[in-house]
Automatic annotation (TrEMBL):
Listed PANTHER family: CONDENSIN (PTHR14222), CONDENSIN COMPLEX SUBUNIT 1 (PTHR14222:SF2)
Biased composition (Pro residues): 308-322
Top-rank taxon: Eukaryota
Full protein name: Condensin complex subunit 1
UniProt xrefs under InterPro entries: ARM-like (IPR011989), ARM-type_fold (IPR016024), CND1/NCAPD3 (IPR026971), Cnd1_C (IPR032682), Condensin_cplx_su1 (IPR007673)
Any one Gene Ontology cellular component term annotated for this protein: condensed chromosome, centromeric region
Family: Belongs to the CND1 (condensin subunit 1) family.
Bias (Acidic residues) ranges: 1171-1193, 1223-1258
Gene: YCS4
Bias-annotated ranges (Basic residues): 1110-1119
Principal location: nucleus
Length: 1298
């Protein structure tokens, strides 16, 4: 019956079975026929193996204890549970026992507590399910038994169990960490009818710190529960008990109360009368200090009468008389009471500062992609704001950005947007205290206060949030009426800032309901554009922004934007705007007002060009003293040209970048700045107006088409893009013609003369030195350049010059933004000079750098600029000190990774530029950047290609820093596929001479370690064999590097001053020597690793050794072209040696024509030349057969008619020199070299520096041909034979001598 899950759910049947089992256990010695242990055996061996019987067994044991007073069975079952061992594979049994133990700990905590000594071993169990049950059982013991026991033993046990809970915060399993947080959330709940929780006050600070640490946990579910726990700590704070505090946890309030108590204690109890007050005050200082749980515990548990004895009073010459005992007792009681209050507020300050320290992390979690974390963070800040904590303001303002979050769910119920709107409604509309009914005026004041403290980005998000709330009818009408009364109030108490804030909030509301503005348009004109607006241009600007809500319209997908009603030119609003623009005093606020006024005119006026043209004529006439401001447009243009002394010749000066004396101007720089700003903004808005006209034409044509063919309305809607989407239709062509040829170059255009004027001011920055004038002139120039491609091309170089040389960050930022707009309009013009934009990523001003990054991000992600090698400059921004810049750079690369392998294609260029000595970054920054970028390489094919490209880069890497960078990038890749691993093995000869560098070797160790873990089983043996060879090579390379270093040191000691060699560079070459060019006796090759041989049967990798003391000879190499040309052709080379105290080994190298310095052996012969340029010109073709090359006489060829190529006086010395290599034994890899005939010119050790060059030339010897053993390979690049050169070069790298 118990095996049936449905029968066990029957309560009556289950109860009967439990009674029967209890009777069998207590009344019958033999139980169920198996003796008294029969029930226990069935419980442990059968019942507790089924998860659905866990509750049944726990209730059975509880019945035995409560109704039959039998504890023997429960003790035996718990001991049997303690003796069991659970593994990760025992999931079913572990779940059954876990459920049983949790339930029995809740039903019989006292009996479980007796057995906890034995059960604690499961805290280290391999099964995380068992560990979770232990943690939950400990919580039940504390809540149901220990917290209600006031004995000392219970207090000690409770502290011990809290220590266990604190240790489990660091459990390796995230589910256990979650269970710890959930248990603590249960313990923080106040008991019924009381505000007391199960967590001691002394333990709370430490638990808060541990919970705050879990905010950085790698598991999102742990972070979410940590936020929940911290919110619960706020709700159940012990510092909310005093009614006079009014439920506030304000830091300022607590600090003020603490100061009052300190002053009260000092005034009532001077230190000379009451000993011990001074140490108490020192302990209770307001400084933030780390919390020690034991110290707090001792201070909390200590009784008032058991205060620590006061230190002895200092010895004074005349101590004051002791007061009467009757007066001391009341004084001591009052002092102790004041001390308790002081400790209360001090601990409260410590708690508030703990919460404040975690606000920054919680603000970061608001930007998480996990919905649960975002929602719980919102709840935390709402609760903190309810408690009047100042630190909550930052989080409340940050969460407003979540209004832009895109919810993917089918319903908005429970979405992040919905939670955000509810949170803001609780914070600003329901009030800070739940029991208090807030009035509409108080709600309005809070909303107005937001406009004072938020940034521009936050205000933009707030506008979207409030408009959405208005659309959902979440804003009461009383609040709207209160805001209008504040705006239109004539009371002097209403400040200008408060009036502006009310209008700003109303404009946010009007975005969803334009009737809010339309119904109160008269108030706007009377106040905003009337007497108050004249005094406060910022209020006039806000009025223009609010009025613009009348022209907003939403476009539905698949249709044109609907047109809005425009006002006639006779409307009083336009007259007020014109008067304010012309008559406003000299204030910087004028520019912001003028911008919004022009926007309003172009949005709502029937003929905005007429009104704006009149404004320009009036302002220009007042500046240049033109007598007839109402004259025709061309007359005004001529007068402007004459006043500014601008003609065709002045345009030449502007194009050339030179200055020309300006005309006689009587206007102030501020007046000229206003004119420049007005001209530029009117030009750009006129362009927008033309686009609106084009859209209106298309809309009308589409409407006419629908009227003519109503039956085909649906098909016409589908073909809407055919009407509106083409760029070559008649409407677009007409508008483009007006824009390109009429606005700035038309004969009747008012802007015709202002373009040269503005360009003239920008180019004459020494004449027009005013900063405001230059800023507005450059801004207007950028706007004019966005109008016409011809004007843009004519002044593009001037704008680039301003961008590079301007000292003003504002001008540079405006220029960058303007160039971004020009790129959208005229892509071909800017794309050729895109490097000017990338250069600003290195600007010293962070604002310019941020704007540049944003502009380039927009252009690249929208496909307007091709991704090129300069993208490495954007990668440098990942390590910018400014947090916002680095976050923008991360966002850019994250979005770029979704664009068709864009990061993968540009990764080689990024690595090259970042590791380059001239353009690169610090090594630590390089590693951080590459760690981030390599995360986007996920495809196996991409990994294989990058591995090969990086390995080949070792050839051209010159410095150890570049070696480390390449190896580090390789270690970041998942080299786990068979192809990737084989590429690492096959390219061993390329990087084997770099293994002595510790960073390079460590990176390859990491590569192999990762490969062994993730690679397939059949590859592991192959990888392990390669790892052994790699380790052997590393050890020998390190040993040889040490040998080279010692040789250099010993030679320097023996010879004193090292002699400079003009040929071969012995001294300098040894100092610059790398390990691959040193004397390695047993260099490895890929073919050696896999046991391969050469085509003729000889073993690969045989070494060539020379005696320690050999006659000085010239280095000679013989290059042999392989028959099978591949990407990496093999070549044989044979070289002589110069005097060296160490051995030289040769190995196989790659390349068809190897050239070292100025000595070359190109396919046919050896030429000696004097310069590197001659060496490049003297490459000869080698036509000999491969079999004949082994017997070729490697000597300088005879000169042609023009004489011997190179230095003629070397000829005598070269004829008598030679080298012979012969094979001694098949089993011996050493090749003996025959002594060479010298010419008797040995270097004396004490020779003067003046004779070195001549003697070096005379000492150069020519090698003779000798039998060359097949299979001998050289790893050393041949030396340069250059007159007067200390070292040559090989493939663009510095050559080094072995």
């Amino acid at each position: 019956m118990l095996e049936d899950v449905d029968l066990v759910k029957d309560e009556s049947l289950k109860h009967l079975i439990q009674v029967i089992l209890c009777l069998c256990t207590t009344r019958y010695d033999r139980g169920l026929g198996h003796g008294p242990p029969g029930v226990q055996t069935r419980v442990t061996k059968e019942y507790l193996r089924e998860e659905h019987l866990s509750d049944f067994v726990a209730e059975l044991l509880h019945m035995l204890v409560t109704q039959y007073s039998d504890t023997k069975l429960i003790e035996n079952v718990l001991r049997d549970f303690a003796s069991k061992v659970f593994t990760d594979k025992d999931t079913k049994v572990a779940k059954a026992y876990s459920r049983f133990f949790v339930v029995i700990s809740e039903l019989e905590p006292k009996e479980v507590l007796k057995q906890m000594v034995h059960l604690q071993v499961h805290l280290d169990s391999e099964s995380h399910t068992i560990r979770m049950s232990l943690i939950e059982a400990i919580g039940n013991l504390i809540h149901n038994f220990l917290a209600m026991d006031n004995s000392d033993s219970a207090a000690k046990s409770m502290h011990a169990y809290y220590d266990i809970i604190q240790e489990r915060f660091r459990d390796v399993n995230s589910f256990v960490r979650v269970k710890v947080l959930q248990v603590l959330m249960k313990l923080t709940e106040p008991r019924e009818g009381s505000a007391i929780t199960d967590i001691p006050v002394a333990t709370r600070p430490l638990l808060i710190n541990l919970a705050a640490g879990r905010l950085h946990d790698k598991s999102s579910i742990v972070r979410r529960n940590a936020i929940k726990l911290l919110t619960r700590f706020l709700e159940t704070s012990p510092f909310l008990v005093f009614p006079q505090d009014k439920g506030s946890l304000s830091l300022r309030y607590f600090e003020s109360k603490k100061r009052e108590l300190e002053e009260l204690i000092k005034s009532k109890f001077p230190t000379e009368m009451i000993p011990g007050i001074e140490p108490t005050e020192g302990e209770q200082s307001g400084q933030s200090a780390p919390v020690d749980a034991m110290e707090v515990d001792d201070a909390t548990d200590m009784d008032v009468d058991e205060q620590p004895p006061a230190p002895p009073a200092p010895v004074e010459p005349a101590p004051p008389p002791a007061p009467d005992e009757e007066s001391v007792v009341p004084m001591n009681q009052e002092l102790q009471r004041l001390r308790q209050f002081l400790k209360y507020y001090t601990d409260g300050i410590r708690f508030i500062r703990q919460v404040k320290s975690m606000v920054a992390t919680l603000c970061e979690l608001l930007a998480s992609n996990v919905k649960g974390e975002v929602v719980e963070s919102m709840h935390f800040f709402v609760e903190a704001h309810r408690l009047k904590m100042e630190c909550a303001e930052e989080g409340v303002k940050k969460m407003v950005h979540k209004i832009w979050d895109k919810d993917t769910g089918e319903s908005e119920v429970g979405s992040i947007k919905e939670h955000l709107m509810k949170s803001y409604y609780q914070v600003y509309f329901e009030g800070l205290v739940e029991s208090r009914v807030e009035t509409a005026e108080e709600v309005a004041n809070r909303l107005i206060g937001l406009t004072f403290t938020m940034t521009l980005a936050e205000l933009t998000s707030l506008e979207q949030l409030l408009s959405t709330m208005v659309g959902k009818n979440m804003v009461p009408e009383e609040v709207v009426e209160t805001l209008w009364s504040i705006f239109a109030s004539k009371k002097k108490e209403v400040s200008a800032a408060r009036r502006r804030g009310a209008l700003t909030v109303l404009s946010y509301f009007a975005k969803a309901k334009p009737d809010i503005i339309a119904d109160n348009l008269d108030n706007l004109l009377r106040v905003g554009l009337g007497e108050y607006g004249k005094k406060d241009l910022l209020l006039a600007r806000s009025t223009c922004v609010a009025v613009q809500q009348l022209g907003t319209s939403k476009r539905t997908k698949g249709s044109l934007a609907p047109s809005h009603a425009r006002l006639t030119m006779a409307h009083p609003m336009f007259a007020r705007l014109r008067d304010l623009i012309i008559d406003a005093g000299p204030s910087l606020d004028w520019f912001g007002f003028a911008e919004q006024a022009i926007n309003t005119i172009y949005l709502l006026s029937e003929h905005p060009d007429v009104l704006c043209g009149e404004l320009i004529r009036l302002i220009a006439s007042s500046i240049f003293e033109i007598k007839s401001p109402n004259a025709q447009v061309d007359d005004v243009a001529d007068d402007l040209a004459n006043a500014l002394n601008i003609d065709e010749r002045s345009q030449d000066h502007i194009a050339a970048g030179t200055e020309q004396p300006a005309g006689d101007l009587t206007a102030t720089p501020f007046d000229l700045s206003r004119l420049c700003f007005l001209v530029g903004h009117v030009a750009i808005k006129q362009t927008v107006h033309l686009e609106a006209v084009e859209s209106e034409w298309k809309r009308r044509k589409h409407a006419e088409m629908l009227e003519k063919t109503p039956r085909k309305a649906a098909a016409a809607a589908d073909d809407l893009d055919a009407v509106t989407g083409t760029a070559e239709d008649e409407f677009t062509e007409a508008i483009t013609h007006v824009r390109e040829n009429e606005l700035l170059y038309g004969e009747n255009s008012l802007l015709k003369s202002f373009g040269p004027m503005i360009a003239f001011i920008c180019s004459s920055n020494r004449t027009f030195k005013d900063q405001i004038l230059q800023t507005n002139a450059v801004l207007s120039l950028c706007k004019l350049m966005c109008v016409s491609s011809e004007f843009c091309e004519a002044h593009l170089q001037l704008l680039f010059t301003i961008l590079e040389k301007s000292q003003s960050p504002v001008i540079r930022s405006n220029t960058i933004i303007g160039l971004g707009d020009m790129t959208v309009s005229f892509n071909s013009l800017i794309d050729q000079n895109i490097s000017y934009l990338y250069n600003r990523l290195g600007d010293e001003d962070l604002g310019v750098k941020k704007n540049t990054l944003m502009v380039l991000t927009f252009l690249i992600l929208n496909g307007m600029v091709k991704v090129k090698g300069q993208i490495s400059e954007m990668a440098k921004c990942l390590e910018c000190e400014e947090r916002r810049i680095s976050d923008l750079a991360k966002l850019f690369f994250k979005e770029l990774s979704t664009k068709d392998n864009a990061v993968y294609n540009n990764l080689p260029d990024i690595i090259s530029n970042l590791s380059h000595p001239a353009t690169g970054v610090e090594e630590e920054s390089f590693r951080n950047i590459m760690k981030y970028l390599m995360e986007f390489i996920k495809k196996e094919r991409q990994t294989e290609n990058i591995v090969e490209k990086l390995l080949l880069r070792f050839r051209n890497a010159d410095t150890e820093r570049q070696w480390r960078d390449i190896a580090f990038c390789l270690s970041l890749l998942n080299v786990t596929s068979e192809k990737s691993i084989k590429k690492v093995v096959e390219h061993l000869p390329i990087y084997q001479d770099k293994l002595h560098e510790a960073g390079v070797y460590k990176s390859f160790q990491d590569i192999l370690g990762k490969a062994k873990k993730l690679a397939k089983a059949e590859l592991k043996t192959y990888i392990e064999e390669f790892e052994v060879k790699l380790t052997s090579l590393h050890d020998k390379c390190v040993e040889n590097e040490a040998t080279v270093s010692n040789a250099v040191t010993e030679k320097g000691k023996g010879r004193g001053k090292a002699k400079k060699e003009s040929v071969g560079g012995v001294t300098d070459g040894m100092q610059d020597m790398t390990l691959g060019q040193a004397a390695g006796q047993e260099e490895m090759d890929v073919d050696d690793l896999i046991g391969g041989t050469r085509g003729n049967g000889t073993k690969r990798g045989m070494s060539v050794r020379t005696p320690a003391k050999t006659p000085r000879r010239i280095k000679v190499r013989k290059v042999r072209q392989s028959d099978d040309d591949s990407d990496d052709d093999d070549a044989e080379e044979v070289r002589g040696t110069m005097e060296s105290p160490f051995e030289v080994q040769s190995t196989r190298r790659s390349g068809r024509n190897q050239q070292v310095g100025t000595a070359t052996k190109p396919r046919g012969g050896l030429k000696f030349v004097e310069t590197e340029d001659e060496a490049d010109d003297m490459l000869l073709d080698e036509d000999e057969d491969e079999d004949e090359e082994d017997e070729e006489d490697v000597r300088p060829r005879r000169p042609q008619k023009g004489g011997m190529v190179g230095v003629p006086r070397w000829k005598a010395a070269l004829r008598n020199a030679g080298r012979e290599v012969r094979e001694d034994d098949e089993e011996d890899n050493d090749v003996e070299e025959l002594p060479e005939a010298g010419d008797g010119n040995e270097d004396p050790e004490d020779e003067d520096d003046d004779q070195e060059e001549d003697e070096d030339e005379a000492l150069i010897q020519s090698p003779r041909k000798g039998p060359v053993r097949r299979g001998v390979r050289s790893a050393m690049p041949s030396r340069a034979i250059t007159k007067g050169a200390a070292a040559g070069s090989w493939n663009g790298r510095s050559s080094r001598l072995r």
